[in-house]
Design brief:
Elements lengths: L3 E2 L9 H8 L11 E5 L10 E2 L6 E5 L14 E8 L16 E5 L2 E5 L8 E3 L6 E4 L12 E8 H10 L13 E2 L2 E2 L8 E7 L6 E8 L10 E5 L5 E5 L12 E4 L5 E7 L6 E9 L3 E7 L2 E7 L7 E9 L2
Parallel strand pairs: 1-22, 3-13, 14-22
Antiparallel strand pairs: 2-4, 4-9, 5-6, 5-10, 6-7, 8-9, 10-13, 11-12, 14-17, 15-16, 15-18, 18-21, 19-20, 19-22
């Protein structure tokens, strides 16, 4: 992979069910763990580029490269959707009740039986179910980018209620307003991007180094905040097919706009400095300690990989 660099940076109440849900609004937040797109058996797809829409499945849990014992998704019921990268165009074409799944012990264990539930596969790594994303329409994004979202069922119903829809599960689209995209409020969601067909990839890669030995470090995590304010967790790992010995935390198929990468102290990495090649860091100069880095993806960006380097004390 080529390494260039990146840059820093009253709900209306409808009935007793929603009244009960309102009481949970104070704890609404993005779930723990991560989501990621995959094929039916949970295998990684390089660059998150798939031959056909039918090949794309949703997986949930700690995510690729996560350390053993890392948190998966919070146990709960969830709803998912597929949109264009801005989130404004809903591409999922079936009712939201068809797009429900259940997480138990941090992994997807079932889809909700509604008569229209989605096809599932089995993750070969940790026995989780994977959930096929079709049906969804073609993305209008000229780069071929799609965005997959998940949100807790309770938060989805609250989001739809805020848009005036009594039961969002009964419709395909609850509508949208500022900060509420079809019932999915970005700060309460996890997202992942993917592409379909023959296309190039744009990505953000983060490497973690042992500052004493300059060895790259596995299982180190960072938080990606996408252009609409949703988040996901990525960890550093390596595959021999990449042709490098480096451990990298990948954000694949990124869309135009400003993304954020948040680097925090964590087991095995007290952050000493961060290096990036943008105006927020200077030209390959250093930021001290944990930070959030803005990574702008420009129209017709020719850089395939925007790279951030994190130097750690491992003691």
């Amino acid at each position: 992979m080529k390494f260039a660099t990146g840059r820093r940076y009253l709900v209306p109440i409808f009935g007793s069910l929603l009244a009960a849900l309102i009481s949970s609004a104070a704890w609404a937040h993005s779930p723990s763990g991560a989501i990621f797109t995959t094929v039916a058996n949970g295998s990684e797809v390089n660059f998150n580029i798939y031959p056909a829409k039918e090949d794309v499945y949703l997986d949930g849990g700690p995510g690729p490269g996560a350390p053993q014992g890392a948190a998966g998704l919070d146990d709960d019921s969830y709803v998912f959707q597929v949109t264009d990268p801005s989130g404004k165009k809903l591409l999922s074409s079936d009712a939201a009740r068809c797009r429900q799944f259940v997480v138990t012990n941090g992994i997807i264990t079932s889809v909700v039986a509604t008569g229209c539930q989605h096809t599932t596969g089995l993750d070969i790594d940790h026995g989780a179910l994977t959930v096929q994303l079709v049906p969804y329409d073609d993305t209008p994004n000229p780069g071929g980018v799609y965005k997959a979202w998940v949100v807790r069922l309770g938060d989805f119903l609250l989001g739809c209620a805020a848009l005036g829809v009594n039961n969002g599960l009964d419709v395909v689209d609850c509508g949208q307003s500022a900060g509420n995209l079809h019932g999915f409020i970005p700060r309460h969601t996890k997202t992942d991007n993917f592409k379909v067909g023959r296309t190039n990839n744009l990505e953000i890669d983060t490497r973690f180094f042992d500052d004493a030995t300059m060895a790259t470090l596995a299982t180190k995590g960072m938080k990606w905040t996408d252009t609409v304010g949703a988040t996901n967790t990525k960890h550093s790992y390596n595959k021999p097919s990449w042709g490098t010995s480096d451990y990298l935390a990948h954000v694949e198929a990124v869309e135009q706009g400003t993304h954020q990468i948040t680097i925090e102290d964590q087991p095995g990495c007290k952050v000493l400095k961060i290096v990036c090649d943008t105006s927020s860091c200077g030209h390959w100069t250093e930021i001290t300690g944990p930070a959030t880095i803005d990574v702008p993806i420009k129209p017709n960006d020719k850089v395939w990989t925007h790279h951030i380097e994190v130097y750690c004390s491992v003691q």
